[in-house]
Design a protein that fits this description.
Strand content of chain B: 5-15%
CATH topology of the largest domain in chain A: Rossmann fold
Radius of gyration of chain A: 18 Å
Radius of gyration of chain B: 38 Å
Strand order of the largest sheet of chain B: 1-5-6-4-3-2
Order of helices and strands of chain A: EHEHEHEHEHHHHH
Oligomer: heterodimer
CATH architecture of the largest domain in chain A: 3-Layer(aba) Sandwich
Number of strands of chain B: 12
Helix content of chain A: 40-55%
Distance between the termini of chain B: 60 Å
CATH class of the largest domain in chain A: Alpha Beta
Chain lengths: 236, 764
């Protein structure tokens, strides 16, 4: 079993782990800024930085396994070209690659489909640097990262799963911009209880997404390359 | 001055009464559509099943009159019954059954010998029903002469084979057959038109649904394409606002901004062409510049709802033709199109100041075929006025309540009442003719019978009696029984001159009773009373005259059976009318949705265009070097623009009510320096009123927030409604909430929650 120290990034109490990170971002200025953010983290190595998902897949097919990234920072929309293919994201996740979507979040339907595909980390490009780095680390730990804006995508999904009254209220308040503490105050409950409501919402939404996912025929995705052979990634 | 006028000539009575007799009805029956198809099939099966049932009655009547000696006739009747049943479910040549029935009837006349026998009486009605079945199954124009020829042939055969029966009976057969075929065709044509209308409405619904779906998909596609295209500007503005490595290389930033400006300016110029399928299409002219006056787009859209799609298309076609003519022949460099509404009419004038012409319109200009005839075909007027040197004016006058509001679209109750009245009057008139023609009239019973029929008819028209309901029901039931009794008395209760028995006479008051439509109990009690009377009379007569009793029962079967068929058709009409009405409602709703979706899409494009302008201007300033990207003021401004543009594209144009009402609030917030975060899901509010109420609350929140302050407004489903949540330091308690509300102060911010009804249609 692998566990990572959140403070210093060491694996199983041993040497500090180094995480290989790939960046897919078509916008030059944004890519510069993302690269800067990642390199600030001492335990991150950028192994790929390119402008499109197909470019990334081509690179990874040719790269030796030792170069394969643990995490992909992915922008969803590409200028004057088709946006990121949700099927590809699903296939990448199935291999064990962790993905953080870093996006302007301009398209709620596309972002929702990405969350439903199983991406657990979604951040906005205007989020603070601290939040973005926290999101990356949370996803590497296998945790969800939910911002108020992402909660608003779930709250506004016409096909969201059925929620209890309390869960629905916590979600709507959080999605409307209240902090967790303010949500708890507004609902006359403790902070932990409010957090539990939100956790349950995430779980329900993710399981609804998983149910959709499990019906898909992954076989029809024509990836024969070893990287997409559904072998889970392992922590270094 | 040359002037051409066209008027529509379409008398309703000609279509209702003459066309069914003179014209082929197969086009009416062959019209595509579920209602027409099911009507034709159900009429065919009902007629053939009834014909089969009647053959059983015929066989019993034959046995009663002739005993076993009549077995060949009985066999023929039963074979014909079997063939009718087979024809109801399998394809058998349609004319075979009515022709067979006529031949069997003739055989019955000849085999019966005695004019007062049961089999002759039943054969009379066999012949009548043969006419009915022919009228229902054979829809070609040749059916009417065919039936009359068959009746004449039967008449001649009887005169030659049974000279002792005299002239009156054979001639009555011809008159009755002619009346039956005319009445059946008129009634069937009416039903078919009703079914055609229901199908046309259903087709409109399908078309409207298809257009709604197209509008929805267009909205989705537009939103997604726009989001992708705007993503670059949002990214650039966001990168500059974030600062750091993103803006470290000033030249790189300027290059990116210049590239974005080029891309977005191109996008802004590429406003998608919106094709107006409606009246607004008449102003989209390629050939000549148009000076437009009169009604605005919204007014035209409103009027368009009162016109059918074909009329709208014809109006646009006429206007385009007029402009084409002006471009080709007048030498004018401008055409004026004016649209006005007055006295329930839409008046459109197309005027050029070109060369004009004198006298009739010169050939080859398309005025006659493309304007005048097209107008006449679509039920509106087209006038062309011209004189040399003074240009040409084409005037289109379109009634906004066109004649296409068919008479049969009136409420079903009214139709039943009218048809019932018509039948009551018609059957009374036939009784008068038959009586005056010398029909058998024992005890002079026919005169009081006609009196009772007339009395029932007048009573059914009395508004006072109609209001009382019960009294009129009782009166008509009594009249039905009295008429049956008197019609029986006129033939000495089935013992003399039975072929003259006016067995349909009681249906006069009974169908008036059916047409009251104030409940099923009246007709039910009427039928029970009639049946009880028949039973009582048959039981009384049978000991003295077995044949009389049998004929009495057959006569009752004729009247009651006819009434049952009438009731069945009434039910069919109701179903068809309800279907048409339902379709009309659905079409209205679907059209409304399409209009809203189109309006929302146009508004969305307009707002995005406006939102983009300030972003493009800012990017241009940075690209030109006028605004250094790393300066705090530039970064702040970019942050504001980024937020504004991102929120604009996040609003789905599928939210037809909310998008129109809330997009302006973003601009309002930006103008007031309020950082508004607007979060909308994929669910719309129920109507424009609710959207307006939501917008008012958001405006109130903005005005209460000091410049530089933040306000979050979200609208998400909560239970069965949509909840507006306003969060910010300037959020005030609700003033006059229409629904449930909650206000709370949470330290630095205030929370206001309000509920609104949500739309049943969800955006994707």
């Amino acid at each position: 079993m692998t566990w990572i120290n959140e403070e210093d990034g060491r694996v199983n109490g041993g040497l500090k782990a180094r995480w290989r990170v790939a960046i897919v971002e078509d916008h030059l200025l944004q890519r510069n800024r993302t690269e800067e953010l990642v390199t600030r983290g001492e335990d991150f190595d950028i192994v790929f930085s390119g402008s499109s998902a197909p470019e990334f897949v081509t690179w990874v097919r040719a790269a030796p396994p030792g170069q394969w990234p643990h995490l992909l920072l992915l922008d969803l929309m590409v200028d004057r070209a088709p946006s990121v293919d949700v099927e590809l994201v699903k296939a990448l996740l199935k291999t064990g690659l962790r993905i953080v979507v870093i996006s302007a979040l301009a398209s709620p339907p596309l972002t929702r489909s990405i969350i439903r595909a199983g991406v657990t980390g979604v951040v906005g490009k205007r989020d603070s640097e601290e939040d973005i780095v926290k999101a990356i680390r949370a996803v590497l730990r296998g945790e969800d990262w939910m911002t108020s804006e992402v909660a608003s995508l779930i709250a506004g999904d016409p096909d969201r799963p059925a929620l209890s009254i309390q869960e629905e209220r916590a979600l709507v308040l959080y999605a409307s911009g209240l902090t967790l503490e303010q949500v708890a105050t507004a609902m006359n409950v403790g902070r932990e209880t409010a957090k539990q409501y939100l956790d349950r919402v995430k779980k329900k939404y993710a399981s609804a997404g998983f149910m959709v996912r499990s019906k898909l025929d992954f076989g029809r995705i024509a990836w024969s390359d070893g990287y997409l052979d559904a072998t889970p990634r392992r922590a270094p | 001055m040359g002037e051409i006028r066209a008027r529509r000539i379409s008398p309703a009575f000609r279509r209702a009464l003459l066309d069914p007799v003179l014209k082929d009805m197969t086009p009416l029956a062959g019209a595509a559509g579920r209602a027409t198809g099911s009507l034709v099939e159900s009429v065919r099966r009902a007629a053939l099943t009834a014909a089969a049932g009647w053959q059983l009655v015929m066989a019993l009547a034959t046995f009663a009159s002739l005993g076993l000696a009549g077995w060949p006739l009985m066999a023929a009747q039963l074979c014909l019954g079997a063939a009718s049943l087979l024809a109801a479910w399998r394809s058998v040549p349609a004319p075979a059954i009515p022709i067979g029935m006529t031949l069997v009837a003739l055989w019955g006349f000849l085999a019966g010998g005695d004019i007062d026998s049961t089999v002759v009486f039943a054969s009379c009605w066999e012949m009548n029903f043969a006419g009915c079945v022919a009228g229902l199954l054979l829809l070609r124009r040749s059916t009417v002469p065919l039936i009359i020829l068959m009746a004449l042939a039967s008449c001649t055969t009887m005169l030659l084979a049974r000279p002792g029966w005299g002239f009156q009976f054979p001639i009555a057969v011809v008159v009755t057959q002619t009346s039956i075929i005319v009445a059946v065709r008129v009634g069937l044509a009416w039903l078919l038109r009703l079914a055609n209308d229901a199908d046309a409405e259903a087709a409109v619904v399908e078309d409207a649904k298809r257009r709604t779906e197209i509008a929805r998909r267009k909205s989705v596609q537009l939103a997604e394409e726009t989001r992708v295209l705007h993503d670059t500007a949002i990214n650039t503005l966001g990168a500059i606002a974030n600062g750091g490595a993103g803006v470290a290389d000033q030249q790189q930033v300027r290059d990116q901004c210049a590239r974005d400006v080029l891309l977005l300016s191109g996008l802004h110029g590429e406003r998608p062409f919106v094709e107006h399928a409606g009246l607004r299409g008449m102003f989209e002219q390629q050939r000549l510049p148009v000076a437009r006056t009169g009604l605005e787009d919204e007014a035209l859209e409103h009027l368009e709802k009162m016109l059918t799609a074909s009329v709208t298309g014809a109006v646009v076609g006429c206007v385009r033709e007029a402009v084409t003519n002006a471009a080709k022949h007048s030498g004018a460099d401008l055409v004026r199109i004016d649209a006005t509404e007055s006295d329930g009419r839409l008046v459109i004038t197309v005027q050029d100041s070109g060369s004009g012409f004198a006298g009739p319109a010169p050939g080859g200009r398309g005025i006659e075929s493309s304007i005048v005839r097209r107008a006449a075909d679509n039920g509106f007027q087209a006038g062309v006025a011209s004189s040399p040197g003074a240009g040409t004016t084409v005037t289109l006058t379109v009634a906004l309540q066109p004649e296409s509001a068919e008479w049969f679209r009136r409420p079903v109750g009214f139709l039943h009442h009218k048809t019932g009245e018509l039948w009551g009057l018609g059957v009374t008139a036939v009784s008068v003719i038959l009586t005056l023609g010398g029909g058998t009239d024992h005890y002079l019973a026919l005169y009081p019978m006609i009196g009772v029929m007339a009395l029932a008819w007048f009573a059914s028209r009395s508004p006072r009696l109609r209001r009382t309901g019960l009294l009129l029901h009782a009166l008509l039931i009594a009249a039905t029984c009295a008429v049956f009794f008197l019609s029986a008395a006129a033939t000495a209760f089935g013992q003399d001159g039975v072929v003259h028995w006016q067995a349909l006479a009681p249906t006069g008051p009974f169908i008036l009773l059916l047409s009251l439509r104030t409940g099923r109990n009246g007709p039910l009690w009427g039928a029970v009373a009639w049946a009880v009377l028949v039973t009582a009379m048959a039981v009384t007569i049978y000991p003295s005259s077995g044949a009389g009793g049998q004929i009495l029962i057959i006569a009752a079967c004729v009247g009651l059976g006819f009434s049952a068929v009438w009731a069945r058709f009434q039910h069919l009409v109701e179903e068809l009318s309800e279907e048409a009405s339902r379709s009309q409602h659905l079409a209205f709703v679907a059209n409304l949705r399409t209009e809203l979706a189109t309006a929302a899409r146009l508004g969305y494009q307009r707002w995005l265009g406006a939102g983009l302008e300030s972003a493009v201007q800012l990017l241009q300033e940075i690209a030109d070097g006028g605004r250094p990207a790393h300066e705090p003021s530039t970064r702040e401004r970019c942050g504001t623009e980024e937020l504004y543009l991102r929120q604009l594209v996040q609003i789905s144009p599928e939210l037809v009510h909310l998008s129109r009402a809330l997009m302006p609030t973003l601009k309002n917030a930006r103008d007031h320096g309020v950082e508004l975060a607007l979060r909308l899901g994929g669910t719309d509010v129920a109507d424009e009123e609710a959207a307006g109420a939501v917008a008012r609350e958001v405006y109130r929140g903005i005005s209460g927030t000091p410049p530089g302050g933040a306000l979050t407004a979200s609208l998400f489903p909560m239970g069965d409604s949509l909840q507006l949540t306003l969060i910010g330091p300037g959020v005030a308690p609700p003033e006059d909430p229409a629904g449930p509300s909650r206000y709370e102060q949470l330290g630095a911010v205030n929370l206001l929650e309000l509920r609104y009804p949500q739309s049943p249609v969800m955006a994707g």
